[in-house]
Amino acid sequence: MSELRFTEDHEWLRAEADGSVTVGITAFAQNALGDVVFVQLPELQAYDKGAEASTVESVKAASGVYMPLDGEVLEVNDKLDGSPELVNEDPMGEGWFFRFKPTDAEAVAKLLDQDAYDRLIKANAEA
Amino acid sequence: MSTETLLKTPLHALHLELGARMVPFAGYDMPVQYPLGVMKEHLHTREQAGLFDVSHMGQIRLTGANAAKALETLVPVDIIDLPVGMQRYAMFTNEQGGILDDLMVANLGNDELFLVVNAACKDQDLAHLRKHISDQCTIEPLFEERALLALQGPAAVKVLARLAPEVTQMTFMQFATLRLLGVDCYVSRSGYTGEDGFEISVPAANAESLARSLLAETEVQAIGLGARDSLRLEAGLCLYGHDMNTDTTPIEASLLWAISKARRADGARAGGFPGADRIFTQQQAGVSRKRVGLLPQERTPVREGAEIVDEQGTVIGSVCSGGFGPTLGGPLAMGYLDSAFIALDTEVSALVRGKKVPLRVSKMPFVPQRYYRG
């Protein structure tokens, strides 16, 4: 079993048994974006933390999805090419974006946990 | 701009009650979408009927025996022969032939004209009218006094006929004063979605009860500005400040059709509006760039501001409006292109995040207009 981690940019990360990490955008993020119509997925290559690895296009606008940690992208969710609406329908499951191997295996655990992320959302809502 | 300084339409509280997501637009706090979401709101409007609050737009009344003649000095459109009970599309031009704003003009009869102008331009349009024609007619802004609702979609006529059966007799661009729920309203059979439908000018105090009554009909959903934009883009309709501005002439904006025959170089009342010489020269000699429809050949939406390049990578234009068309089922755009590339089916590319997205020059509207012409 693996715990979810989050970034301040509203991405979720899940550490997999093989040491790779799956990334998607949170339910909060997809709701804020509205109907997703296109996802530009990353290339299978190394990205630095903070690089715009992917772009999600809603009816309204384009938003960057940033590399949460230094690492190499191993796999992308090809299903999003034909069914970008999965990001809205199942953001934490079928709507995942990509899987990567972090350069520093310990770094994932240092990201926000569920409680910290929930507090962030709450603070945003009250701002 | 903080939300405290934003203006509110008479339907503001209703939008909040309906769960709208509000955004600042042209100085107003406006609903960009309701819980249904942009995609479903768009499709609902094309399938049934959508109710839009467009009260932020400026309504202006011109009164006087010379009102039509006076307004003709500011627009390249035939106003003098606009029949009573009809509405026409027009634009204010500047001395260079650029477009200051686009507007609708209706003839109410009794020497009264009714104008609807864009929200972001309404103060400037009012000043423009006052500067140039206040000595020839009475100019009366109705900005706070009246709200404006748009009821759009194939079921709009059926819904509105429950309040005023006369609307079934109206055709596209006809205009009438009708009593809705006991209140005198200006009703035009027109809109900004490409669908059949109506725009209803109602006194501000009666706007909410009319909106609630229309929303209570099973066919009607509240629709936000997000879907309004995707609907008008599919219909090939221009958005002022994006698809045209003071630097674009009606010829460059592909709006020659809106310049009335009577006001053209060979017309009965040729010229006599700002920038006429430049516009006529352009009409005859051609222009170096023009607004065209563009269909991305991949799934990537191509947004406003994206550069358009030819095969060699030379910049030949830019996108002025772009997004995703829910009815079209794919991305769509409009852009200004160097005239060498404006022929239908010409292949060009847009630069999106450093990558070339192929585009094809396409006819507009992207989705067929379904106006009721009787």
From TrEMBL, chain A:
The modification N6-lipoyllysine is found at residue 60. The keyword Cell membrane does not apply. Keywords: Lipoyl. GO terms for biological process: glycine decarboxylation via glycine cleavage system; protein lipoylation. Residues 20-101 form the Lipoyl-binding domain. Pfam families: GCV_H. One of its GO terms (cellular component) is cytosol. Binds 1 lipoyl cofactor covalently. The keyword Iron does not apply. Its cofactor is (R)-lipoate. Belongs to the GcvH family. The glycine cleavage system catalyzes the degradation of glycine. The H protein shuttles the methylamine group of glycine from the P protein to the T protein. The glycine cleavage system is composed of four proteins: P, T, L and H. This is Glycine cleavage system H protein.
From TrEMBL, chain B:
It catalyses: N(6)-[(R)-S(8)-aminomethyldihydrolipoyl]-L-lysyl-[protein] + (6S)-5,6,7,8-tetrahydrofolate = N(6)-[(R)-dihydrolipoyl]-L-lysyl-[protein] + (6R)-5,10-methylene-5,6,7,8-tetrahydrofolate + NH4(+). SUPFAM superfamilies: Aminomethyltransferase beta-barrel domain, Folate-binding domain. Substrate binds at residue 199. GO terms for cellular component: glycine cleavage complex. Residues 289-367 form the Aminomethyltransferase C-terminal domain. It holds the Pfam family GCV_T_C. GO terms for molecular function: aminomethyltransferase activity; transaminase activity. It comes from the Bacteria. It is an enzyme of class 2 (transferase). GO terms for biological process: glycine catabolic process. Residues 11-261 form the GCVT N-terminal domain. Its EC number is 2.1.2.10. Keywords: Aminotransferase, Transferase. InterPro entries: GcvT, GcvT/YgfZ/DmdA, GcvT/YgfZ_C, GcvT_C, GCVT_N, TrmE/GcvT-like. Belongs to the GcvT family. PANTHER family: AMINOMETHYLTRANSFERASE, AMINOMETHYLTRANSFERASE, MITOCHONDRIAL. This is aminomethyltransferase. It comes from Pseudomonas libanensis. The gene is gcvT.
